[in-house]
Amino acid sequence: MGRGAMATKPSKKLDTFPNPAPSDDYEIAFDCPEFTCLCPLTGQPDFARFTIRYCPQDTCVELKSLKLYLWSFRNEGAFHEKVTNTICDDIAKAIAPKWIEVVGDWFIRGGIGTKVTVRREAKGKKR
Fold it and tell me: Of 24, 56, 112, 115, whose CB has the highest number of CB atoms within 10 Å?
């Protein structure tokens, strides 16, 4: 690490910033191809590619905090369905988007690949 560089650690904290165009409906999409966590039964690593899409209301997710948040799952054991729902719920709680969709595309293990899709909408909003 260079002089003045700070060590970065995984974190469950999602930072936000004000939506620069709150009167517009637009989509933000993140491609996160390096997700890892542990299988809760075997302790072996599980790998996934996450796609996160949302329409912001008042705030947006800051990218570095999203990276550290996703990294925080690396040593945790959880089923694919639980992880995908947790990620969607945590982001929705942090930013209260008009809508959000999180897709966990879990890599093949034992001949089976799994894709988990979770969608949430703001109360009273139709998509």
Answer: 56
